[in-house]
Amino acid sequence: MIAIDTNVLVRLLTADDAVQTRRAAALFEQGDIFLPKTVLLETEWVLRFSYQLSRSTIVTALKNVLGLAQVKVENGFTLATALSLFESGMDFADALHLTSSRDAAQFATFDAQLKKQADRDAPNHSVILL
Fold first, then answer.
1. Rounded distance, CA 129 to CA 11, Å?
2. Which of 64, 45, 67 lies closest to 55, judged by CA?
């Protein structure tokens, strides 16, 4: 198994550099790939800010990669839940922070929008507004 950096995943998803895209695709064909949640977090940010992709395009791209048989992820349940919250409108970073903290009794924030979205879309997570 080999872990990859954000730039490898971005090349695979955007195909914006032919040489690097072929190399990234070949790596995925060679064997198991490990995706840390931090790579997915950064990938979402790069696709949104640098490539100006829509939320639905990003969700589709990430789901497609996560659905590959050779792809293993760090804490799949956490990532799947965060991706679902992102799809429903929550910021991906906020969703990942929240779902990664499920063992905590509460999640404290100054972000009123995050609290509102969590109360609506993730009621099993106790978010408190400071």
1. 38
2. 45
Structural domain harbouring 128: 90-130
User: Strands 71-73 and 107-109: what pairing?
Assistant: unpaired
Helix (H) or strand (E) holding 126: none
| CA 58 to mean position of chain CA atoms | 9
- The span from the CA of 130 to the CA of 56, in Å, is 31
Mean pLDDT split into 10-residue runs, the chain, 130 residues: 97 97 96 96 97 97 95 92 95 95 92 93 90
81 lies in some domain: no
| Residue listed under structure tokens 């971005």 | 10
C-alpha 52, offset from chain centre? 16
- How many beta carbons lie within 10 A of that of residue 94, not counting itself? 20
Tokens of 17: 């550099």
pTM of the model: 0.91
Other C-beta atoms closer than 10 Å to the C-beta of 13 total: 21
Residue 82 falls inside a structural domain: no
